[in-house]
Amino acid sequence: MPICPHYLISQTGEAMINTSDIERPPQQLIETLSSISSATAAGELCRLGIRDPQILGPIPRTPGKTVVGPALTLQFMPKREDIYAVDEYNDPEKQLHRHALYHTQPGDIIVVDARGDLSSGVFGEMMLTFFKGRGGIGAVIDGCIRDFPYAQTLGLGLWLKGTTPNFHTQTNIYPFAVNVPVACGDTLVMPGDIIVADDDGAVVVPIKLAPELCEKATAHSEWEDFSRMKLEEGGHLRKYYPLNDEARAEYEEWREAQEK
């Protein structure tokens, strides 16, 4: 039996897997953050003390797709002969990557620390089809998937380090833990953290900072809309980005008119 925080022993001596679900944030937070970009989220988080919230490594593989939602997490570890044995996985129910997806609820994002490995496909088309069918909206994987030609047609947002024809335990790594803190792209992701991901990349929003980020990012997006409009009209960068005092007064008048 592998050493794993999710393996339990039944009264009959059989190994069973028991994984915990995540605590999901209020839907209002998700809806508010859905109106901002990853760039705005990253910039405002930096001002709130999170210097670099980007998950570095996985890149957008589904252009134009934006997802915002809580993180289910899956951790891989390097294989070691005295702990991992191939025959452990003859029973599909011992495959931890399945159990990560079993928790899927509508709006969830699966975040995988696959150690940047480029030779193991964390999920394939069947797993991702199940995830999509259960309401999952995106995957951020510091590693690879396989069956990419099909996966990209599912409508999921995919942020990946690569693709491979190999299955998930074929080479160097194996699933070790579900819904635990992970280092995805060397960025700490806690289970239930909010992920904001678009064509710029994926950003981790610590759940305790989400309400303040919503407030600041909403205000930022509003004045940027005004600034963009003025720059398109030929306004000067010195005045409108960021807004100087004169432009700020114009913005307040514009916003008041918009609210009427």
How many domains in all? Answer: 2
Could you name the CATH homologous superfamily of the largest domain?
Ribonuclease E inhibitor RraA/RraA-like
Main β-sheet, in a few words? 8 strands, mixed
Mean pLDDT: 89
Would you write up a description of this structure?
A hairpin with a 5-residue loop joins strand 1 and strand 2 (15-17). The chain is built from eight helices and twelve strands. The model is unreliable at 8-14 (pLDDT under 50). It starts with 6 loop residues before the first strand and ends with a helix. The chain has helices at 27-33, 38-47, 96-102, 125-133, 148-151, 210-232, 237-240, 245-259, and strands spanning 7-9, 15-17, 59-60, 67-78, 109-113, 138-145, 157-163, 173-178, 182-184, 187-189, 194-198, 201-205. The strands form three sheets. Strands 3, 4, 5, 6, 7, 8, 11 and 12 form an eight-stranded mixed β-sheet that branches. The protein is α/β, with parallel strands linked by helices and 260 residues long. The protein has two domains: 19-206, 3-Layer(bba) Sandwich (Glucose Oxidase, domain 1), CATH 3.50.30; 212-259, no CATH class. Helix 2 packs across helix 6.
Salient structural properties:
single chain, 260 residues, alpha/beta, Glucose Oxidase, domain 1, eight-stranded mixed β-sheet, two-stranded antiparallel sheet, 12 strands, 30% helix
List the helices and strands and how they pair.
Layout lengths: L6 E3 L5 E3 L9 H7 L4 H10 L11 E2 L6 E12 L17 H7 L6 E5 L11 H9 L4 E8 L2 H4 L5 E7 L9 E6 L3 E3 L2 E3 L4 E5 L2 E5 L4 H23 L4 H4 L4 H15 L1
Parallel strand pairs: 4-5, 5-6, 6-7
Antiparallel strand pairs: 1-2, 3-7, 4-8, 4-11, 9-10, 11-12
Helix pairs in contact: 2-6
